[in-house]
Write a structure and sequence with these properties.
Bound molecules: adenosine monophosphate, zinc ion
Structural class: alpha+beta
Radius of gyration: 14 Å
Low-confidence stretches: none
Number of domains: 1
Length: 114
């Protein structure tokens, strides 16, 4: 997707602070952090969002969560706790139409999120 922000980050065309990487996924710091730890984990392949991952591609979720766990360990929140968030669509609060999971931690998270 040539006009997709996160595809451009994956391609190195837009700079990002990369935290971790696997064959299939990339993790980088969110530009507007909502917590002391706020990292985005994205598949290198373009999917617009959770609803766009079809059955044969569902391994993408395993890959994202696996890298998110590595990020949590590297950022020191594995044991203190952290939150993983997929925002889906408008009312879900999704603003960038490239699948991603937020890794949030380093402070007490509240519930419900609002
Ligand atoms: P969402 O609202 O779930 O679609 O999350 C998109 C996230 O991308 C937001 O938390 C933004 O702060 C973040 N974001 C937008 N542009 C960039 C960028 N160039 N580099 C890193 N994070 C970004
Ligand atoms: Zn994309």
């Amino acid at each position: 997707m040539s006009d997709c922000l996160f595809c451009k980050i994956v391609a190195g065309e837009i700079p990002a602070k990369v935290v971790a990487e696997s064959d299939t996924s990339l993790a980088f710091y969110d530009i507007a952090p909502e917590a002391p730890v706020h990292v985005l984990v994205v598949p290198k392949r373009h999917f617009a969002g959770v609803n766009d991952v079809i059955a044969t591609d569902r391994g993408v979720f395993d890959e994202l969560i696996a890298l998110a766990r590595e990020v949590a360990t590297a950022e020191g929140v594995r044991d203190s706790g952290y939150r993983l968030i997929f925002n889906v669509g408008d009312e879900g609060g999704q603003t960038v139409p490239h699948l991603h999971v937020h890794v949030l931690g380093g402070r007490q998270m509240r519930w419900p999120p609002g």
